[in-house]
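Hi Y.,

Following your request, here is the sequence exactly as I used it, all 96 residues.
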Amino acid sequence: MTLHIISRSPFQHSAMNECIKVAQATDTIVLTEDGVYATAGEQHAQLDSFLKAGRLFALSGDIAARGLDTPEDINSISTAEFVTLCTQHNPIQSWF
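Below is the corresponding structure, written out as C-alpha cells. Let me know if you'd prefer a different format.
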C-alpha cells in the first residue's frame, strides 16, 4: 500500500491528476499544504473513490491555516496521525 502525499493546489498544478492516474484502490492519499484546496468543488469529486474507501485524509492544520471549512466527508487528521500513516505505509510517494 502506497501513501501518496499531495502538497500542491489542484488549481495551479497537475500533481493531483498525476497521482490519481497511478494510485491503486488500496493506496491512501493525504492532502497537505496547498493540496488541501482539493477538499472543495470539482477536485473533491475526483478523489471520490478514495473518500468512499476511507483512504483520503487532509491535514487539519493546513486546512485551518488556509481558512477552509472541512467537508464532513473528509477525514481531517492531526500531524501526529499523519506520522502514524507514514509508519504504516511503504512506499511513500510525494506529489509536489
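The helical segments are 15-22, 41-46, 48-52, 60-65, 79-88.

Thanks again,
Q.
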